[in-house]
Write a structure and sequence with these properties.
The protein is mainly β. The protein contains two helices and twelve strands, in the order αββββββαββββββ. Strand 7 and strand 8 form a beta hairpin.
């Protein structure tokens, strides 16, 4: 996974937390050093119009700009240029691998890891907590600087011992909530050229 760094400033003149930036820079350096990454994921969706949460389990793979997300019958794959997604048995979508136009869209694993670079967010450390497999994770909260962002807040939990990302939770403006929990990753594994 790729992470890039910059310190965000909101339209209200608020700046991001230097301690949070320092931690994110360390995480970036570590992830950029990996040739590939593989992790089990649990995606918990709570859509505004639904009363119950939906839980999906799967596996994510990334090799530089290429990634693959397998979620049972559904999947998403990109070779870094084109994005393919199968949402049900009959539907396969193919489109350009998109980049964010307003600095706050999250449409790929790389986007999730690069949100702190974009000036669309101001971020700060909000504390520590046990999260997923991590006994002690640093919680960083990102708030969008623009009102047209799809999210009101994104929270990232980073394990203090390994600096691996444990979970990412996004809160939608429509009251939806998306949480992606990741296992400890397997790194630098080699994949066949046609895997992505």
């Amino acid at each position: 996974l790729s992470i890039t760094s910059a310190q965000g400033t909101s339209s209200k003149g608020e700046t991001s937390d230097p301690k949070a930036k320092s931690l994110l820079d360390r995480v970036k350096k570590m992830y950029d050093g990996y040739q590939s990454l593989e992790t089990n994921i649990t995606l918990t969706l709570k859509l505004a119009e639904q009363r119950k949460e939906e839980v999906q389990k799967g596996k994510a793979y990334q090799e530089k700009d290429k990634y693959r997300l397998d979620m049972g019958k559904n999947w998403m794959m990109s070779d870094g240029k084109i994005l393919w997604a199968k949402v049900d048995e009959k539907t396969i979508h193919m489109s350009n691998a998109v980049t964010s136009s307003n600095g706050c869209e999250v449409k790929s694993p790389k986007d999730l890891m690069e949100i702190y670079e974009k000036n669309g967010f101001t971020y700060t450390i909000m504390g520590e907590a046990a999260e997923g497999w991590s006994k002690k994770a640093t919680m960083i909260v990102f708030k969008p600087n623009k009102k047209n962002c799809d999210y009101t807040q994104i929270r990232v939990a980073i394990d203090q011992k390994s600096n691996h990302v444990v979970s990412i939770t996004a809160f939608g403006r429509d009251q939806s909530r998306y949480k992606c929990e990741m296992s400890q990753p397997i790194v630098n594994k080699k994949y066949a050229t046609d895997f992505f």
